[in-house]
Amino acid sequence: MELSYTAAEQEFRQEVREFFKDKLPADLARKVQESKINTRDDMMRWHRILFEKGWIAPAWPKQYGGAEWSIIQRHIYDEEAAEAGAPMVAPFGLIMCGPVVMKYGTQKQKDFFLPRILSGEIVFCQGYSEPGSGSDLASLKTRAVLEGDQYRINGQKTWTSMARWADWIFCLVRTDVTAAKRQEGISFLLIDMKSPGIRVRPIVTMDGGAEVNETFFDDVMVPAENRIGEENKGWTYAKYLLGNERTSIGQVGGSKRELKKLKDVARAEHMDENRRFRDKVALLEIDLMGLELSNLRMIASLRGGKDPGAEASILKIKGSEIQQRITELAFEALGPLALPFQREALEEGWNGEIVGPDYAPPVAPKYFNMRKTSIYGGSNEIQKNILAKAMLGL
Amino acid sequence: MDFDYSEEQRLLDETVRRLVRDEYAFADRKKYLVEPHGYSAALWAKYAELGLLGLPFAEEHGGFGGGGIETMIVMEAFGRGLALEPYLATVVLGGGLVALAGSDAQKSDILPEVAAGTLLLALAHSERRARYNLAHVETAAKASGAGFVLDGHKTMVLHGGAAHKYIVSARTASATTDRNGISLFIVDREAKGVAVHDYQTVDGQRAADVTLTGVSVGGDALLGPRDGALPIISRVTDRAVAALCAEAVGIMETLNAMTLDYIKTRKQFGVAIGSFQVLQHRMVDMVIALEQAKSMEILAAMSVDSADANERARAISAAKVQSGLSGRLVGQQAIQLHGGIGMTDEYAAGHYFKRLSSIEYTFGDTDYHLDRFPAF
After folding, report:
1. What is the three-class DSSP state of A267?
2. What are the two backbone dihedrals, phi and then psi, of residue B144, each rounded to the nearest 5 degrees?
3. With CB atoms counted within 10 Å of each terminal CB, which end of chain B scores lower, N or C?
4. How far is B303 from chain A (nearest CA, A)?
5. For chain A, which domains are there?
6. A272: contact with B, CB 8 A cutoff
7. Is there a contact between B281 and A381 if contact means CB atoms under 8 Å apart?
8. A180 CB near a chain B CB, below 8 Å?
9. Do B283 and A300 touch (CB under 8 A)?
């Protein structure tokens, strides 16, 4: 039993750290540290820097242009990226759709999509949820009818993150309404967002932002060759997709960075002298220590070739609770100072005068926004159902 | 980074798991409880035979040079069986103090006998008004000739009734709660002026109050530096906390397994109660609580011998906080999910719950360790 890293791993960490020091644009890192809103340009600027370095796809095999890092290297990279304040890179192509194309795509699909996902020429978004299909995803109704060599798509997707930024969308659609099991009538399609008949409407959330969208499909024609794998087997591919990239499911790195910020804010507000508040921060930090160790244990077992399976759900539940709790305590630390609504102060180039301390504007919106973490990616209640069934046999 | 046991550790784990499985059925434990000192003398001899009693000591003293992980492995197994033997008292605390602070002569005198299972030790440190403050020592040791005279009262001396020797903390200088001025003495149970009131604790284990009235000891009874024992007491207490966190994990594992089994088989309204979502989610909460406690148990075991005292204290206190929180949730919900049967003395769950509760209030409760944890 050993918590420390090997010399080679430490060297790798150093290499990553130096790369961030040299190549991570200071204005981007500052935006992350100050919880400002990232633009598509911000995201793509960083995407291209990573692409040029060959680090844009840490888990992809070299044959597809990935870095093919070990799971430990990926974990080290995630840690360093979070600490350095590297902006997010859109995960929908790189982490979700890309591996599905690799495993189930045709040669033509691989040749077309994989290099473009890597270079950033194609940004994907995800078309899973529908207004009537949230936790019960298999009930989805967006209809795809084959007409010759094209599918005609009608329906609506919702909660589509980055839909306004995306070039393509990967979608679960219903191709067989008569299938005995609902899961058996679903196909996995890649759809060009420029296709006629697609309409995107932003959904303003309670924090004032609009990360998510409704995506409408009205007689959208999609070439059948954009289907992944077999017709009506989409559920299998969707499940494969969900199993990918578990090393960062608990969001430990980001939470460590945010906890540090919380402490800075709390100190500035003299809340470190408030015993009741201090205890809450201590409990939160202890919870995060436990999560970090649980995450490392999972990484070690993945490295050993074991699939933790349902246990990843524990990290999702704990990780999301901790993410939320950090923002909750930041709001508490500021109290009334967090109440002035200053959405525009989070945007780039805004030069107005901030009411209250500089760090106040993002605090309340972030608290409201982070309620999403226990809802998305399979709500925490669904995660508990999964654990009860798959891990406990209930 | 590696969370696998070494080959030796794996063997140790297998050995103690098998031992507990074979020897610590709930019915066996009932028999051990009514033995003279409330534990199995035969098993104690067996532990010695297997090398468990010398596990953390140096080879020259009959030991195996084990560290935090080895103790964790043993204590986890003891937790699964709710073992009653004075392992924590004699090996971790008593033997640990001698190994840390003893002179060569003291070590050679005491440790091989501990390892052989023939000498039982107990730490007589807690006092009525100390609560969890390790620096609170009223018991006085007055210099007298080449030796000392001890007067005072110690409480909740773990396995104090069975011990042959006590390691007594006493004040050789300064006022009651000063960090300096505390010394340790090795005191024979048979020494004149030692009175022992042995009792059972709520979890079925044994402890004692030890009263010292004009007890004379020689200069060679001093263990470690005069006036400077607190860091040593603190260090060995941290080890005991790590050990208790491991025992708690063993207990929680067992309670979770028992509860899961119960809700799968217990039928009400014509179905297994485990088919109800409210109970499924509660059970998952218990699993998550255990997972967190398990991670912190490992962190504690890995940090317990860290040279950096701050880092050590941080990890140990964090682990004890998590153990306390997880222990309460798992313990209380295990009883709840069992319903009425969980309340009964004849069913094991309550006994596991009681031990978890005792652990929570031993060597610092959740609030004490939360306070000790450096948040800012």
Report:
1. helix
2. -150, 105
3. C
4. 10
5. 7-89 (1.10.540.10), 123-236 (2.40.110.10), 252-391 (1.20.140.10)
6. yes
7. yes
8. no
9. no
Q: Which residue has the tokens 């804010």?
A: A265
What is the C-alpha separation between B340 and A260, in angstroms, rounded? Answer: 46
The interface predicted TM-score (ipTM) is 0.95
Which of A288-302, B32-46, B230-244, B319-333 has the weakest average pLDDT?
Answer: A288-302
DSSP 8-state class, residue B41 = H
The number of angstroms, rounded, from the C-alpha of A63 to the middle of its chain's C-alpha atoms is 25
**Tokens describing residue A281:** 């921060």
- Please state whether beta strands B140-144 and A212-223 pair in parallel, antiparallel, or not at all (unpaired): unpaired
Give me the DSSP letters along A1-51.
-B-SPPHHHHHHHHHHHHHHHHHS-HHHHHHHHTTPPPPHHHHHHHHHHHH
Q: Packing angle between helix A40-53 and helix A26-33, nearest 10 degrees?
A: 120
Q: B317: closest CA among A262, A285, A322?
A: A285
> What DSSP designation does A216 have?
E
- Flag if B284 and A392 touch (Cβ within 8 Å): yes
Which of B274, B280, B376 is opposite residue A267, by nearest beta carbon?
Answer: B376
Residue B104, burial from CB neighbour count under 10 angstroms (0-12, 13-18, 19+):
exposed
φ/ψ bin of B90: left (φ > 0), alpha (ψ from -120 to 50), beta (otherwise): alpha
- Residue A305 pLDDT grade (very low, low, confident, very high; cuts 50, 70, 90): confident
Mean pLDDT to the nearest integer, A352-357? 94
Task: Write out the DSSP string of A120-150.
Answer: TSS-EEEE--BTTBSS-GGG---EEEEETTE
Tell me which amino acid residue B97 is.
L
How crowded is the C-beta side of A363, counted as CA atoms within 13 Å?
A: 25
Tell me which residues of chain B have a C-beta less than 8 Å from any C-beta of chain A: 1-6, 9, 69, 260, 263-264, 274-275, 277, 280-281, 283-285, 287-288, 291-296, 298-299, 301-302, 315, 318, 321-322, 370-371, 373, 375-376
How many other CB atoms sit within 10 Å of the CB of residue B266?
16
Instruction: Render pLDDT for B136-176 as a digit per residue (tens, 0 to 9).
Output: 999 999 999 999 999 999 999 999 999 999 999 999 999 99
Question: Does the pLDDT at position A309 exceed 90?
Answer: no
Give tens-digit pLDDT for B82-104. Answer: 999 999 999 999 999 999 999 99
| pTM, to two decimals | 0.95
- Vertex A337, ends A331 and A338: CA angle to 5°? 40
**Residue A146: beta bridge partners?**
A151
Domains in chain B with CATH codes: 7-119 (1.10.540.10), 122-228 (2.40.110.10), 231-372 (1.20.140.10)
Q: Which two tokens stand for residue B159?
A: 């396995």
Q: Where are the alpha helices (DSSP H) in A247-311?
A: 252-268, 275-303
Contact of B16 with B68, CB cutoff 8 Å: no
Buried b (16+ CB within 10 A) or exposed e, B46-72: bbbeeebbbbbbeeebbbbebebbbbb
User: For residue A191, what are the contacts with CB-CB under 8 A and spacing of at least 6?
Assistant: A127, A153, A168, A169, A170, A171, A198, A220, A222, A226
Q: B174 vs B13, B123, B128, B197, B227, CA distance in Å?
A: 45, 22, 19, 29, 9
For A296, nearest residue in chain B (alpha carbons): B1
The 10s digit of each residue's pLDDT in B119-135 is: 999 999 999 999 999 99
What is d(CA A361, CA A341) in angstroms, rounded to the nearest whole number? 7
Helix (H, G, I), strand (E, B) or coil at A79: helix
